[in-house]
Design brief:
With about 280 residues, this protein is α/β, with parallel strands linked by helices. The protein has helices spanning about 15-20, 35, 55-60, 75-85, 105-120, 140-145, 160-175, 195-205, 215-225, 230-245, 250-255, 265-270, 270-275, and strands spanning about 1-5, 25-30, 45, 65-70, 90-95, 125-130, 145-150, 155, 180-185, 190, 210-215.
Length: about 280
């Protein structure tokens, strides 16, 4: 039976499609813009979006399982339509911020997605990755200029590669033993922001200085970028928390995939062109 990948143009969903195709699994990809996604020819493409539930019945027809991208606004309607279509299995992308209680947290939306899927009675699995390595793509201009300026340089987290999240999602979708489980995913190493900058310099072969901003300076900058103030405060509080209590790898990626997760240095090498 076919697996539906929602958000197939998204940063993780697009990679889930590739993983399932490589495994020889029939895949249906839901996307608003197939041309932009450049989906593999082996995938069946359906035009639509979780944001437009009216497009979902066609996508859900004759599907055995769904990879669900997080969209709290319409998740209840998705669950209704999926139940009507006879879907039993749902693997939902969530986040490690679920339950942190902060008003500006992304965890609030992830929790809403989890609650809806759980309440609908599907055979569910939730994937809760932490911070993405891709977040440091936002440093690209500063890296090219030779200096990265950010707050909380010694805040230590366990960033994960999007490819590892997708590989776990695909593995969970096609294997047994994951129903009713929540997998908290991390990268293979604890690394501070200062150490990430040093790694960028080492891999790229150039000197990159680290300039530490104060919390107030960082807050002003992010608010100026248009990020909501409560979300800015949540982000800054998170860095402050990992300064006091450094994160440690969960080891779940390695356990589920039977291979090491991608290190930050390997991720930088794979994305060298972005920073060059």
């Amino acid at each position: 039976m076919t697996i539906l990948v929602t958000g197939a143009t998204g940063s993780v969903g697009r990679l889930v499609v590739d993983e399932l195709v490589a495994a020889g699994v029939p895949v249906r990809a839901l996307t608003v813009d197939p041309s932009r996604a450049k989906l593999p020819s082996e995938a069946e493409v359906v035009v639509g979006s979780l944001a437009k539930p009216s497009t979902l019945p066609v996508a859900l027809k004759d599907v055995s399982a769904v990879y669900l991208a997080p969209m709290a606004r319409t998740v209840r309607r998705f669950c209704e339509l999926a139940a009507e279509a006879g879907i039993e299995r749902v693997v939902a992308l969530s986040g490690s911020s679920v339950g942190d209680g902060h008003e500006g947290s992304s965890g609030n939306e992830y929790a809403a997605v989890e609650a809806a899927v759980r309440d609908a009675g599907f055979a569910w699995t939730f994937l809760r990755p932490g911070v993405f390595m891709n977040n440091t793509l936002g440093w690209a201009d500063m890296v090219r200029a030779g200096e990265v300026a950010t707050a909380y340089g010694d805040a230590t987290q366990t960033p994960i590669d999007l490819g590892d999240i997708a590989a776990v999602a695909a593995r969970v979708l096609v294997s047994n033993g994951h129903i009713g489980l929540t997998h908290v995913l991390s990268g293979p190493e604890a690394i501070s922001q200062r150490e990430q900058v040093a790694t960028l310099g080492s891999v790229l072969g150039k000197e990159i200085r680290f300039h530490e901003l104060t919390r107030a300076e960082q807050r002003t900058q992010w608010v100026g970028f248009g990020i909501p103030e409560d979300a800015v405060d949540w982000l800054l509080d998170g860095f402050e928390e990992t300064l006091r209590h450094p994160q440690a790898p969960t080891g779940v990626v390695e356990e589920l995939l039977g291979r090491p997760g991608r290190t930050y240095a390997a991720w930088v090498a794979a994305n060298r062109a972005v920073f060059a």
